[in-house]
Amino acid sequence: MKTALITGATSGIGKATAEIFAREGFNLILCGRRKERLEELKAKLSDMAKIEILSFDVRRKEEVFHKIGGLPEEFSNIDILINNAGNAHGLDPIQEGNTEDWDAMIDINVKGLLYVSKAVIPKMIEKKSGHIINIGSTAGKEVYPNGNVYCASKHAVDAINQGMRMDLNGLGIRVGAINPGLTQTEFSEVRFKGDKEKAGKVYEGFKALQAEDIADIIRFVVTRPYHVNIADLTVMCTAQASSTIVDKN
Ligand code: NDP
Ligand code: 8X3
Predict the structure, then answer these.
(1) Is CATH 3.20.20.60 correct for 3-235?
(2) Which UniProt keywords apply (predicted)?
(3) How confident is the model at residue 109 (pLDDT cuts 50, 70, 90)?
(4) Positions marked active-site
């Protein structure tokens, strides 16, 4: 049975992916900072899959290596890595940007993804198999006003995804990105620092993607035959045509 490590499993896309993977019977390593949420999810999914929870902040390099390196034997052989942890912090013009928000986005979305990947890749190379899915964004394909540093962080994920695929070519490891557009999760609540009303408005007047829609696509990607690698996939809801064109009524 396959073992999957999912970062950002406490909410949104990561949580929905954990749920769908559990139904596939995969062994799961669920990561995130909010340990109580991981424990709740473990309790919910344990009758379908073997679950290990790993609570750490992806920004803490030493902790990332310590936690992933210390996985119990039965979870140490990771077949699938879902690099999903991440968020936007703020939506301000660059001249008004908050440097702590900038640090958070670069440190979590870019450096955190790199640390987790570096902790997981050596064993994949050893066994000459593995599958890494990097969760990018439409914000990694185009830039929108006030999106500046978030878009930069997701453009970096796009570049890392391409580079990772090149560097791991020939080593038996599949690498691909999934780039969602507007998806209704806790994403906007985090972006607007807990302002639920402002966050809710982002998804008013149209049917946004749901976390389960992306999770179902991730399930599809990881269940293709081994010679098939979905390298780069952009998904938007029907109402969205680009980062700035959304049909709202
Ligand atoms: P959520 O806010 O619902 O989930 C974000 C997840 O990331 C949480 O589980 C959170 O866990 C985890 N996370 C955040 N910061 C850290 C950290 N420092 N260390 C460890 N884990 C962390 O948002 P989404 O599900 O929407 O976001 C998931 C991914 O999808 C992100 O990479 C996001 O950029 C991307 N995305 C989202 C879109 C959207 O419109 N929603 C569209 C395109 C891409 P915890 O807080 O418990 O640590
Ligand atoms: C999340 C989608 O458009 O808010 O990556 O940047 S968007």
Answers:
(1) no
(2) Oxidoreductase
(3) very high
(4) 150
How far away, in angstroms, is 109 Cα from ligand 1 center? 9
- Asked if 3 and 29 touch (Cβ cutoff 8 Å), the reply is yes
Distance between CA 175 and CA 133 in Å, rounded? 6
**For 189-233, what is each residue's pLDDT tens digit?**
999 999 999 999 999 999 999 999 999 999 999 999 999 999 999
Q: What are 102's strand-pairing partners?
A: none
Q: How many Å lie between the centroid of ligand 1 and the Cα of residue 111? A: 14
Q: Which atom of ligand 2 is nearest to the CA of 147?
A: 6
Task: Sketch the domain layout of the chain as residue ranges.
Answer: 3-235
Contact indicator for 121, 134 with CB cutoff of 8 Å: no
- Look at residue 101 and give its three-state secondary structure: helix
Band (249; pLDDT cuts 50, 70, 90)? confident
